[in-house]
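Side project, low priority. Logging it here so it doesn't get lost.
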Amino acid sequence: MNLIRLHFFTTPLFCCDYGFISFGIFWGIPPYANQAMAQQAASENPAPAGMIRSSRMTQNRIKKLEKGNLQGPEGIVLHRTVSSTTESTLNSFSSTGIGTHFIVGKDGEIIQTATLSNKTFHVGKTKNEGDPNNSNSIGIEVVGNYNAETGEWEPLTDEQAASTADLVNVLYDLFNLDVNNVKNQEDISAKTAGEGETVRKAIENCIDNCKNDEN
């Protein structure tokens, strides 16, 4: 599967105040002709601090997930939900208060569940000092189950892979991150083998090679 990074930044679509990572981000729509129009739209219909406003993203903020100020961030951590649906993942986030900043459903829908100015509990105890942790990383859950009998993870749908890659690239641009900042959860904490790796392999052609692609 060949992934092509979609370029959402051909026109100025940002309205940001990076002082305390307090920003309303316009990703992809509307197709404003210039910065002045984007700024006007932001002032008339501002996004909540740390939330991304986009036709490609649903805001479903679960304040129970937010555990205080996010530092950096310095990493992006890839997870699988070990569930079959987005709804069951949202229910888990709401009941436990443990989860990631984003969920990517099988249909490619991206749901933002916590602001990017707050940390969430999504990593657990890290294996090594210096690994991305809850305090300084953004978590992305990709809906998919694990078959304990075969030891295999459910593959990403094409829509999931495309949306996850696009989201990672947007986070690259927002926080000056690159492929070295993207981590599989099982590499930094005690999780089932292959969890983040299945996501990484599905999107690696884009996140590894597309950041500086001008085509």
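Brief comment: The first helix runs from residue 35 to 44.
Revisit when time allows.
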